[in-house]
């Protein structure tokens, strides 16, 4: 039997080098000392004063390992949302929760199903496990339940739905989530990513936490990075059936959330005033930004229920790549989303009033209006 020649250097396992590394939103602009960053969907109001105080107070504990069970934060989230604490999963951002779910359920040859314009972290975790990523078409930039169900096959193990979605900002009423779940096989895990759920206020919307309570295959995730403004501290969580939470806990790194992160997250969770101000700010300026962008001739992807707007450029004429470069040169950082299969679009985080007006004025100049 012929044996393959040994490699002269270590070689990663199959598929690893085919993964496209995650590309974050730009944080720097050449020649601009302090650009306005509207490229990463961060909370433009910053973070809660209470959370910052808790972070600072944790300085005396930097020599101590964090509580591996995240007990205090676990208790706070369970009380706030009326959840069973033992069913909570914690991660270094909700990104790690997605990774853990992929690690727990995927084998080579399995697949995940996601939307055509899905958040990149879903696919990275799947391909790491030598699984296939199947993309369901998104007519009108929005998850289509029938397309998702048509994409599922015998090797599908997880279905990822971000609601509202990133980078499109579109969302589904819970009736559609319910229809999706009821038509999935019971051995498929439905993951509902609620990173932007707090910004969705339509009465037909639900993040799914209540529904997940009585479901054996639904996981709902949330993050402290968006509404709570704690992106730097990387704290995310998921609510899962006990069997799934138990499986994930066996492969979770033991100290994957820090003491400062845990303590700041507790205070952020309890600072309802900051949360309300953050939501009110988005609710005020998101429709204004959409209206102004539409007035410049851009195609606004609606309905956005997140803290950002996705704007498309005409097929002939000005391009999204040129617009992003034009804005960057003026110290205005937005997200060009070619890597999401949207080469004709830019994503703009809702900024302060002066930021939003500056973006519109610059785009008006770019479009020649």
Distance between the termini: 71 Å
Using only C-alpha atoms, the radius of gyration works out to: 21 Å
Task: Let me know the average pLDDT.
Answer: 94
Shape: globular
* Portion in helices: 25-40%
Give the strand content. Answer: 5-15%
**The CATH topology of the largest domain:** Aspartate Aminotransferase, domain 2
| Secondary-structure element string | EHHEHEHEHEHEHEEHHHEEHEEEH
Mind explaining what this structure looks like?
A hairpin with an 8-residue loop joins strand 12 and strand 13. With 369 residues, the protein is an alpha/beta fold. It folds into two domains: 16-46 and 273-367, Aspartate Aminotransferase, domain 1 (Alpha-Beta Complex); 49-270, 3-Layer(aba) Sandwich (Aspartate Aminotransferase, domain 2), CATH 3.40.640. The protein is built from twelve helices and 13 strands. The termini are far apart. The chain has helices spanning 49-57, 71-81, 93-105, 120-128, 145-151, 174-182, 209-212, 242-249, 259-270, 272-295, 320-329, 353-367; strands spanning 36-37, 88-91, 111-115, 132-136, 156-162, 189-193, 218-223, 236-239, 299-300, 308-312, 332-333, 335-336, 345-349. The strands form three sheets. A seven-stranded mixed sheet has the order 2-8-7-6-5-3-4, with helices on both faces. The protein has a four-stranded antiparallel sheet with strand order 9-10-13-12, with helices on one face. Helices cover 36% and strands 15% of the residues. The protein is globular, with a radius of gyration of 21 Å.
